Amino acid sequence: QAQLVESGGALVQPGGSLRLSCAASGLTFTIYTMAWYRQAPGNERELVAAVTSGGSTNYANSVKGRFTMSRDNAKKTVDLQMNSLRIEDAGVYFCNAGLNLNGRTYNFWGQGTQVTVSS
Q1: SS3 letters for 40-99?
Q2: 30: alpha, beta or left, given left = phi > 0 and alpha = psi -120 to 50?
Q3: How far apart, in Å, do the first and last CA atoms of the chain sit?
Q4: Partners of 18 in the beta sheet?
Q5: Cα separations (Å) of 4 from 23, 25, 82, 113?
Q6: By C-alpha distance, which of 61, 62, 69 is closest to 90?
Q7: Which of 17, 51, 59, 69 is 20 to 30 A (C-alpha) from 97?
Q8: What value does the CA radius of gyration of the chain take, rounded to a whole number of Å?
């Protein structure tokens, strides 16, 4: 059974930094694209950052230059370093593992971790 467990969410002031982590188990981690999504109250879940199995990353325009996503295949973890946080970065951050293989789609979610940005 695939499982993703996020950690690191907290209350932080605008301009501050936070590091989120996601630990994966029960899946062949190295072949999955890993991603971070976030959802603010009343908003749809949106993609924040993703890293492919090959290590290529992409970011939402709103976080480029401030957030950095990394993966450690040996530890089966992904991190999201968030700097210069803004009030609009607040929300529940979800870790996602996705894979398209032989015509099938595999998609797993963590339970989310709360990020609050407030003074």
Answers
A1: CCCCCCEEEEEECCCCCEEECCCCCCCEEEEEECCCCEEEEEECCCCHHHCEEEEEEEEE
A2: alpha
A3: 40
A4: 82
A5: 6, 7, 20, 11
A6: 62
A7: 17
A8: 14
Q: Which residue has the tokens 């957030």?
A: 67
In the chain, what is the greatest distance between 2 CA atoms, to the nearest angstrom?
48
Note the pLDDT of residue 104: 94
pLDDT at 97 (0 to 100): 98
DSSP state of 21: E
Residue 14 is predicted with a pLDDT of 98
CA distance 85 to 59: 15
Residue whose tokens read 């924040």: 48
